[in-house]
Amino acid sequence: GENVEQHPSTLSVQEGDSAVIKCTYSDSASNYFPWYKQELGKRPQLIIDIRSNVGEKKDQRIAVTLNKTAKHFSLHITETQPEDSAVYFCAASRAGNTPLVFGKGTRLSVIA
Amino acid sequence: GAVVSQHPSRVICKSGTSVKIECRSLDFQATTMFWYRQFPKKSLMLMATSNEGSKATYEQGVEKDKFLINHASLTLSTLTVTSAHPEDSSFYICSARGRSETQYFGPGTRLLVL
Description:
- The structure holds 2 protein chains of 2 kinds.
- By secondary structure, chain A is mostly beta strands.
- Helices cover 0% and strands 54% of the residues of chain A.
- Chain A is built from no helices and 11 strands.
- In chain A, the strands form 2 sheets. In chain A, strands 2, 4, 5, 9, 10 and 11 form a 6-stranded mixed sheet that branches. A 5-stranded antiparallel sheet of chain A has the order 1-3-8-7-6, with no helix packed on it.
- In chain A, a hairpin with a 6-residue loop joins β4 (32-38) and β5.
- The termini of chain A are far apart.
- Chain B has no helices and 11 strands.
- In chain B, β5 and β6 form a beta hairpin.
- Chain B is globular.
- The relative contact order of chain B is 0.33.
């Protein structure tokens, strides 16, 4: 089955700097890759997703890149703000009713 | 985005009792719902996948007689923790998916078994 590895497990950046979180996956048939942000005690919120027919997607300060050949995808947050502090999870799945497989999460701290 | 509700948000129960958690998709029809368990500072652990009108598919190591899942309609799935014990204390989160691959999460239920 699918296995998703996520790095780093913790990340501290200065406010205004960029943050990059990387994930690798094992199942070459996976074609959907969402990123979720989870604040303490809250539900995971979808922040951006990418499908395998696209190499990059951007939404304001957030971007995701996908390299299908290498089976890795990354989340980029630019101009970080304290409210970006949270745990971020990457995930991967195939089409259809297959469940998402999550990475172990990255705890991002943005220091003012 | 789509809205998924979950009730109760928090429950405390005595060991040996059963607890039912409801997950509802409020503004879309969820063909598939998922149930996760999350330990403090850990990732989401998939427990089971539930499709409307059919039996749930449980992940390896999850006891189906312990965690009863019912997906009776396209907007409601329930998870019943039977004969709960302190080790069942956890944060339980459901998610729902409609026609697209996007999963929307409920707010979670914090269960404490005394």
